[in-house]
Amino acid sequence: MTRTHTLMRYGARLLAAASVLLLAACERPPMESVQHGYRGTGMVQVVNPSTIPARIEANEVPVALPAVPADGPKAKQVYKNVQVLGDLSAAQFTRLMASMTTWIAPEEGCGYCHNLANFAEDSKYTKVVARRMIQMTQHVNEDWKSHVADTGVTCWTCHRGQPVPAAVWFKPDTTLAGADFIGDRAGQNEPAASVKLASLPSDPFTPYLLGDLPIRVGGTTALPTGNRQSIKQAEWTYSLMTHMSASLGVNCTYCHNTQNFAKWEGGPPQRVTAWHGIRMVRDLNTAYMEPLTPVFPAHRKGEMGDVAKANCATCHQGAYKPLNGQSMLKDFPELSKAGTAVPAVVAALAASAPAAGKATAKPAR
Predict the structure, then answer these.
(1) CATH number, domain with residue 320
(2) Within a domain: residue 9?
(3) Which is higher by pLDDT, 13 or 103?
(4) In principle, which of 94, 184, 240, 332 could form an S-S bond with 204, CB 3.0–4.6 Å?
């Protein structure tokens, strides 16, 4: 009897240990749900209350410097080589530069982008990049209101006090190492954080947020009359949707109607916003990030020699709206007036660089 009790006790301990390992990736209850659609449709958002304080802290915004007069000498009259923001007053220009320092490089200070012995020169690549990033921010606020509305974005939205945003991506090396009898696995069954460790293609960014391949799941016609939607294409789409869900900290029903995920009719308005967001990110990656490839040094590039690019997590960082919907743009309206001229240094380097390769990763037919 004693031996039996001992075995039962050890068995219970083993079962408890196995349960801990099995549930290690699960969130601790209790969970809460918030209904945002018709009852009985499953249109709810599941929230873990224990994660809310950390999310609030991660999305706090810094206190804005006091506003300064818009009159007085222009920045381009006071300082040399001001290719962007030159029409601001010198006081406004200085205020924005000081703010950008705290948003992007609080430890390095002005020296992160400038030669402290000569602020006007463009010897540091970080200054060249920052100048173009200001224009990119203005472009988002001016031309992508369909996604950011009047809330807008600033440098802080992505950087949050870091020189490189926490969430960026590079093209993966898709070269097969030796013989692969399975064929093109499309990065599946790899523990990739980009798709929350799911057995889905690990790079949904190259085809959809750099390239413009169709995002689709199921066909609407029977084979063989033009139905090109395949199971593998659906897996790529699910890969992108998983990324978006995790980036915003929401369920699939935040954007989709459970009656029919493919239908637009009766769906939440957030789906339209997300549709514009995908195209906005694609625009930023192709028009602003990729052309900066010759500007960045090798140690700032990925294994395939490409520059860091944006995805949904770059701005959202786990919040359904970046910074939980708080707007910093109202304090920095100069970041909403778009300038179209490409800075001279960027234009010259882009013209002399080899043509960038097109997005190669794509869903298999």
Answers:
(1) 1.10.468.10
(2) no
(3) 103
(4) 240
